[in-house]
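Table S2 (text version). Query chain:
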Amino acid sequence: MLLDLLRIAGAVLLYANILIAPGYVLAWLINAFEFRTRSIPTRLAISLTSSIGICPVLTYLMSRGFPAGVWLLYGSAVIAFLILLFAAVRHRAWPPISKRRTMFFILAAAWAIFAMLTLSDLQLGHRLYFPVVTFDYALRADVTSAITRSGIPPPNPLFFPGHPYPLRYHYFWYILCSLVSQAGGHQLSARVSIIAGAIWCGIGLMALIPLYLRFFQPAGKHNIDRRGLIGIALLCVTGLDIFPVLFVELSTKKLIGSIEWWNEQITAWANVALWVPHHLASLIACLTGFLLLWDTRRKPNLPHRLLLALAAGCMFASATGLSIYVTFVFAICLGVWLVIALIRKQWTHGALICVSGCITVLLSIPFLLELLGKAGAAPGGTSQLPFELHVRKFPLLLAILGIPAEGWKSSLVNLVSLPLNYFLELGFFFIAGLIWCGRLWRKRRGPDESQLCAFAMAATSIVVCSFVRSSVIGANDLGWRGFMIAQFILLLWGAELLSEGLKSQGEVRILLVMALLFGAAGTAYDVLKIRFLPVLSDMTPAARVFEWLSPDDRLGERTYAMRQIYEQLRRRVPVNAVLQHNPDVNPQDNFHGMYADRQIAAETMSCGVVFGGDEAECKARIEQIAELFRNPAIDPASIDERCRSLSIDVLVVQKNDPVWPVTLSWVWKRTPLLANDYGRVFTCGSNTKPNLP
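Corresponding structure-token output:
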């Protein structure tokens, strides 16, 4: 655990070269938001959000054409950053930092420490517990290590039938994670680099809030430090999810893995930062790009405006590769605003939006062509199209009313209950949104331009995410992640309301206070689940609700043992070795994903072909692979031939595999490369000799 914390801290420091220096240089060159006259905190906030916006697409494009140039790019950015910083210090180019502004740095440091303790493996003696986010991080660690091994575009790390299939996934964030992993060498695994990346994404969101309050909201610089701190504090508040979650848990006497899993998610900000940093990075890139477009309205110089629009287009292109779902919804929001701007005869602003859109499409073409590559059907998928019309679900209400989940009755109930659904999911922000919309209605004849824009974008996001869902996999990532655009606007409005003081809110102030308290309690409960549900799974059957989390009360011991095996295996076998565990797992094998950093022949019985591959080729091979872990009667002498035909170099057998308890099986007749009480590892086939320790 201490090694994890030290390595994550080291990776956090390495990220500064990627997520501060390039954005600083860019913002200085184009003088975004009068960058050259701003204070240190403002410069750092602009630098971080600009780097998140600009670096993914630049790194992707350069990696495809000139991989060595990536290091040259970042090295040059760091040198230029140091020169500009030295010159600014020498000439005292920025105002002094106020005491209140030091709170932003304290909050960023507190978040970093909190996230490190939440996302690292928790060690209790010889037991080790990963956080619940491993459910998603296992795949992303596989993607990151594939980029490190193979470059851009990476192969699908979950399926290797003797030849690679190009990966189909929005993986731009994990390109940056791979750079940090490469810079750190053997000490920084893919898992460590994505944890550190999640920390920086959270800080990026914190930086974006005061930027929008300062440069987008009508109040501008008035009391900006207080408003900014209130906005950041609201990141700790979610909706009223704690009530339905406790109702379900008390009724079923089973714990839910996340406070978000009781319903179609409107995800708490803490959950977003910890679970899905790539979606959050896409939101930051979209909103930073739009803020640059908004800044063009104050620039009299047309060439300067075009520079800002060009930078915005690059950021939208980055967002496309960071999360196709967030960018899709944001593109619709931007299109709606473009129509409004043209109706209001804002021709220059509309033209600059179009320029940024053209740049986005041009830079995104290589990545979009990758997404159009062949892939199989995903488990849980419901359509061949990536999106489908669908009324946002309210499964708890349907269950209470005894109405089937599908059909016209359920659609009608889901439609009618949308206000209740959103009230429970948004809580304080639902009330704040109603108050703010009431103010806009009263000013409808002369609304502030920025607030008209904010309302249009929030309303568009809500409508799209209420009636359209993604259909590539079972999870509705479009409805869950695209809604973050509306959430961000509601957060800004909530911050403005609280900055006015609760007394000014009249009779609703008690309701606002209660919603804030229950929203903070919901976030705290969710974070506790992320950290301690795996620990509880060894203590009580009520927490043992997912087979992927733990099938028994030995998760801590098993994780400790399997991490030992995989960390030794990383030192013993070549980076291009193909590993194989029992594929008959659902949804994945967490230990391979988090600790192996190696290609696998077939991750599950569906081979992960949704991320690239041929379903027919998977079906032709998967039963042969699964038989190695099911059939104890396999002749040990035939293992090598089987591995050669299946392109496998290393077999990893675990204690819960069917062949393990049979003492006469091949597992106990063949000499392992590594072994402990929970796993045995065998080299096989045409594998090159393993490296010595």
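Notes on Table S2: The first strand starts at residue 122 and ends at 124. Residues 376-383, 688-693 have pLDDT under 50 and may be disordered.
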